[in-house]
Design goal:
It is a single chain. The radius of gyration is 19 Å and the shape is globular. About 60% of the residues lie in helices and about 0% in strands. Helix 8 packs antiparallel against helix 9 and helix 9 packs antiparallel against helix 10. The protein has a single domain, classed as TorD-like (Orthogonal Bundle). The protein contains eleven helices and no strands. With about 270 residues, it is mainly alpha-helical.
């Protein structure tokens, strides 16, 4: 007898745990790549915080093959403070898009005409499809690695909610969006971004965070059968001021069942 999808969801509670653990890892990466605060130290750089995060990583890395849990534990440091992390953050990422390490997706890759504007439009399509907008107080671009990690954390939470409530359309929507977003965005530039970060700060907090990001995103891409971008992906020309074309797969998200409709929700 073939079991209905709803029945499989109801009884497969471990899938909920896995989705929640992935949400926790993506949320930690989003926090780590934002300007450091005391929360950064407490959740990531302290022994207690790193240990708690390593427990979530261990659930995703049951046999230890990906090294997620051991990498998380290397984030903690006795000398960690928000001031020390701030100095490292400014040295690595600077005040512009082109610091020692560029944390913005659209700074990577020069092979496609109109790439930067198109990718920014595609990201906006993804976020809007789920009723999400950037906080004006943050003054951040939608292609920042922290924004992209936070969006994937949201999708993992949506997946967990769908699993708990046996909502098959929502589950399919969340998983499809995750695959598309990893394929077209985070998975495309993280290998190059992480490699540069590890090179610039080997063994330091942000170097280890870059290694963790690479390992985790790689594992998620492998899990979903999504190809990764190359580690040697170069930066686009600094004087590239080309104009936008049509959005790509972000519009695919907007067409999915249950996606946010700005007309129905009164958005401008």
């Amino acid at each position: 007898m073939v079991e209905k999808p709803e029945s499989r969801i109801n009884h497969d509670l471990s899938e909920v745990d896995l989705a929640l653990c992935r949400a926790t890892l993506y949320s930690a990466l989003a926090l780590g790549f934002r300007p450091p605060t005391e929360e950064t130290v407490d959740r990531l750089a302290s022994d207690a915080g790193a240990t708690a995060l390593a427990e979530a990583a261990a659930v995703l890395d049951a046999n230890g093959a990906s090294g997620l849990s051991s990498t998380v534990l290397r984030l903690s440091a006795d000398t960690a403070s928000s001031d020390a992390l701030s100095r490292s953050f400014l040295r690595l990422f600077g005040h512009t898009a082109r610091g020692a390490v560029a944390p913005y997706e659209t700074e990577y890759g020069a092979e496609a005409l109109f790439q930067q504007s198109q990718e920014l439009g595609d990201l906006a399509g993804f976020y809007l499809a789920f009723g999400l907008t950037l906080s004006r107080a943050e003054h951040e671009r939608p292609d920042h690695v922290a924004c992209e990690c936070e969006f994937l954390s949201f999708l993992c939470l949506k997946e967990a909610y769908a699993l708990e409530n046996a909502d098959v359309p929502m589950l399919e929507e969340a998983r499809k969006a995750t695959r598309l977003f990893l394929r077209d965005h985070l998975g495309r530039f993280v290998p190059a971004f992480s490699r540069k970060l590890v090179t610039e700060e080997p063994g330091g907090f942000y170097g280890v965070l870059g290694e963790l990001c690479s390992r985790f995103v790689t594992e998620d891409c492998v899990r979903l059968g999504v190809p990764l971008g190359p580690e040697n992906l170069g930066l686009r020309p600094a004087n590239d001021d080309r104009v936008p074309m049509a959005c790509g797969s972000g519009t695919e998200c907007a067409a999915m069942p249950g996606a946010y409709d700005p007309e129905e929700n009164g958005a401008v």
